[in-house]
Each structure stands twice: as structure tokens, then as C-alpha cells.
Amino acid sequence: MMRPFRLLSAALAGIVLSAVLVSPAHATISGSTATNTATTVTYRFSYTGSPQYLRVYVDADRNAGTGFAQGGTGADYLLENGSLYQHTGSGWSWTLVSAVTFSGTGGVAQWTVNRADLGESASPNDADLIFQVEAPLESSSKYTHVYSGGGSGGTVTYTAATDNFANPERGFYHHTGDCDKADFSQTTLQSYRTSQGISLVMCVFYLAEYKNGPIAQAALDQLQQQIDTVRAAGLKMVLRFAYTTSTAGDDTTKDRILAHLDQLAPYLTAGKDVIAVVQAGLIGAWGEWYYTQNFGNAGTITTTDWANRKAVTDKLLSVVPSTRMVQLRTPKFKRTLYSTTPVQSAAAYNGSALSRLGHHNDCFLASADDFGTYENTAVEYPYLQSDTTYVAMGGETCGSNPPRSSCPTATSELAQFHWSFLNTDYEPTVLNSWNTGGCLADVTKNLGYRFRLESGTYPATASPGGSLPVSFTVHNDGYATPFNPRNLELVLRNTSTGTTYRLAMSSDPRRWTAGTSTTVSQTLTVPANVPAGSYTLLLNLPDPLLSTRPEYSIRLANQGTWDAATGMNSLLHTLTVS
Q: Is the N end or the C end of the chain the one with fewer CB atoms within 10 Å?
């Protein structure tokens, strides 16, 4: 009789070990799966640390009263590293059955075992499993494997990641110079993404020289160059046009703006793939609609001024591609020009003006009314909270104003108003206070969306042309949701050839509400041309306009799932197509 060596058996017996193995600081288990063919079973899980022993307990008869008691099961078989044992006698008593195919490197443990060696035949059956590592000792919860033909496959549980990483159209952004004068550097932009986890840059493009005539071709070429550089670097831009930085408000007339927008239209269309959002701009100092010589200065706005402001906004909405949003500087502007009723769920993302007009606050927390951003917070706060559930919200801080500008209020309002992006370059005093106050790391991770898989249930087998029922639950830890269209695909990747098959899913990630869990369940159809074989399941959330660029796909906040080369997320499950 041979027995697997086991530190925990001695501990259970109350024996003090004289030889102590050096243990890693942690050894957690995630991504547990069990799949089978007609003749074999494959067990797999991910782990951290450097445990000496990797194990699977198999309760083949699903009777906790027989076999070795472990985690609410009665294990009839034990896989320990490269060996399979059968329980005999009582207590810790095992007999070697055979060596098995095993690998335990790179943080992934995997075994392939003959079903016959587990007393299993080709007829349907179930087994309860416990996955385990040692040392230190870590055991999974009970996992039920339903063999092919016996119903749905097992459930995978996922481990959350805690680090910050780049994801498209969210997070802190850089704004380091006027976009019409200072050329973007592709190398610098790429370093934002790879070194800082930043995927956005601000482009404020001034048209000061063209207040009395058409935009020169050289300026249009400059805009095109900036768009091309952002695309090459794998980032996106927050875009705004303006005519002046002076509080004298020396902008230009409505008719001149409308003519300029006609000139800009083809560049906006060609660059829509890397334009995250367009800020209304155009009117007044810095394009913020307050100090202006042509549209009602310093808050004194006539009926004609409001009509002219709406004409500019309507024109901007017409030249900005319909899949992109336009942000207004204050809630009052949208409420006055369009409707005092926030966007409702049924109308969200339908292409209407209400569904496309978002908000930006460029003096966040600077005073009780954020330097004029709000006129009546009792009305505008509830409105903005509701509206930003479905439209883009972002901006910057502009002045230290503790305690309002400190962490408690900052994090509360970032979540309340569903902020997706924030300037990392301004205002430094405020941002430094968040660092010393202990909230900057959380703000960095939670701006926009942060999707985290909790669990998923997938079948063990499928047939070409047959059904493929899948279900997974995702939690959004972020302040917001994606505000631009986003595809969702289940991908089958052949484990031998690497060939992929993409199956479109109907759930819209823009509806995966901030702060909540969403369960996506859908029965897909395996393409009829999929060859028999083993397939890794992946979840892909690509940009519809940049689907071949992995840096524009959404990364999930889980350990051991991200495939940077493809921009896909492993579901840590293998499917057998036969």
C-alpha cells in the first residue's frame, strides 16, 4: 500500500512536525473547472504562491458518509501531484491507482484522468470535488462536476484583481498642452497606457486665428495628425474646440461656428473610432460658455442667446457621429435647452439628443456650487445622478476647498454622478490631498466601469450545430458604465490549433449598472463548422470600430484571466466539442 505524503494529516493527528517546509505568503485557489470527454476527465484550477502539493478530492458516489471526509464530501479518490489514489480502509488511508497526466507550473494545476480509473463509465454520472493546495493549506468550496450527458457543466468561481490597469474610455486622463499647437508624441502616449494605466488624453483644439474666416487646411491637417497619433498609440481622446482663453470672451458668431463645424465634420467622422467623447466647447473662454461676447456674457443670457446656444449644440450633435456623446458644461444648459427630465432607461442609447448629451464639471468640489456649475443643487443633484446613469460624465478639479474637496465628499460624488474620467494634471493640490487622504488609489481604479467576474456556469461538452448554454455573473465595482457601444462575444479557442470561433452575445455592457451584479444567461449555437476537439472559453468585449486592436478591448478585474495578446478574458473553462 502506498500513501500520498500529507502535512495536514499529521496536523490533524495532533503531531508536531520537526521538519517544517518554508511556505509562501499565500496560496489561493481560483478558476476551478472540471470537464470530460467520453473516456477522460480533466481537472484544473489556478493558484498563487509555490505550494508543494496540489490536490483534487473526488467524491465519485456523492456520499459524504463514505470515503475520506473533506469539505462536506466523502472523497473516494485523491489526485496529489502526478498520482491518483483510491481511498481504502478508514481515515487517511489511500492506495495508489496509477500515475496520471499532470502539470503544475505557471500558477495553473491540471490533471487528465481516465474515467474508468474513477469507477466512471460513459453513462452520465456526477462527482463532488474539493480542490486543495499545501503549504499553506487552502481548500476550495465544494464543486459539483456533471459529466457530459448528465446536464450542465460545473460552476467556475473567479478571484478579484486589486491592481489598476488601463481600460478604454475611462480613468484619469492627461492634458498637457493645447492640441492645435503641441504635437502628441506616440511614444509618450503609449507610456501613459503601459506605465500609468491611462488610456485617455484631452485635446482642446483652439481656432483663434479663424474667427473671421474658414479654418485653414493646415489646422485641419494638424487635427488629423493628432487623431492619427492617438490611434497609433492605442489611446482615445476627449475632444473640445474653442476660440479663446481670455475672460474677455472674444469668441466668434453663431454662423461662423456652424460653418466651421461643417469643415470639421469629415474629420470627426474619420476619427470617431478614437474619439471617446466631444465636449460642446466653441462658446466663450476655454469653450466653457460663461465669458462670451456672442452668446450672453457672464450668465446674462437672453432668449435669443439661448436659441443661438441651442443652434450650436444641435449642429454639433449633427456633425459628431451618432454613436458618440457630446458633453455640456453645466446641468442647467441641458435642462434649459432640451428637457428638465433626465434620460430614462427606455430611451438610453437610442441616438436622440437627450440620450447623447452628457456633462462635464471642470471645477469639481471647488466651492459649494463648484464655481457656478450648479445653480440649485436641490434640483440639479437628483437630476444629474439620474441622467449620468446613461450619459457620459467627466471633468477636472480646479481648486482646493477642504473639507468639500477632500476624500469623503470626492468619492461620494464621483460615485453619485457616475464619473468616467478626470484630469490627472490639474488641480495638483486637490489630487495630492486625495493621495494623503488615502482615496486616490480607489478613485484611480473606480473611475468609469470596473467589471469583475464572480462566477460562471458552462457545459462540459457540446456538438457542432448544437446548443451552448452559458451563464456568468459580473459585478461592476466602478462609478459608471461604458458610455459608447461595446460588443460582447463568447470565444471558443481550440487548445491545439489556436483557431477561434466568435459567438455574439446580446447583453449590452452599458447596462451592467455601477455598484451591482448582473447575470448574463444565453443559449448560443456552436457553429456547424467547428471541428471536434478541446476549446478554451473566453469572453471578449471589443470596441466595435477597433475589434482587431486588443488594447481597445475591456479587461476584466480578475486574476489569471487577461490575455493581453488578444485582448480577451479567459473564463477558465475548457469545452469539449464532439
A: N
Question: What does the pLDDT read at residue 38?
Answer: 67
Is the fold of 7-151 the same as that of 451-577?
Answer: yes
Residue 572's Cβ-count burial label (10 Å; 0-12, 13-18, 19+) is buried
What's the CA gap between 273 and 267, in Å, rounded? 11
Instruction: Give the whole-angstrom CA distance, residue 522 versus residue 472.
Output: 9
Phi, psi of 537, rounded to the nearest 5 degrees: -95, 135
Q: Are strands 533-540 and 489-494 parallel, antiparallel or unpaired?
A: antiparallel
CATH class of this structure's domain 451-577:
mainly beta
Residues 74, 64 contacting (CB under 8 angstroms): yes
Q: Which CATH architecture has domain 168-324?
A: Alpha-Beta Barrel (3.20)
Range with the poorest average pLDDT among 33-42, 394-403, 513-522: 33-42
Place of cell 493640490: 429
Q: At what angle do helices 186-196 and 217-233 cross, to 10 degrees?
A: 30
Residue 17 DSSP class:
P
Alpha-carbon gap, residue 120 to 137, rounded angstroms:
29
Digit-coded pLDDT (tens) for 83-97: 999 999 888 999 999
- Residues 224 and 184: their CA atoms lie apart, in Å, by 12
Reported in sequence order, the residue ranges of 180-300 that DSSP labels E, i.e. its strands, are: 200-206, 236-242, 275-279
Say if residue 491's pLDDT is above 50: yes
Between CA 479 and CA 462 the distance in angstroms is: 38
Query: What is the per-residue pLDDT across 441-463, written as a single tens digit (0 to 9) for each?
Result: 999 999 999 999 999 999 999 99
Q: Rounded CA gap, 82 and 263, in Å?
A: 69
Q: Where are the domains of the chain?
A: 7-151, 168-324, 328-448, 451-577
Task: Give me the helices (H) in 460-548, please.
Answer: none
H or E element in which residue 113 lies = strand 108-114
d(C-alpha 379, C-alpha 366), whole Å = 19
CATH architecture of 7-151: Sandwich (2.60)
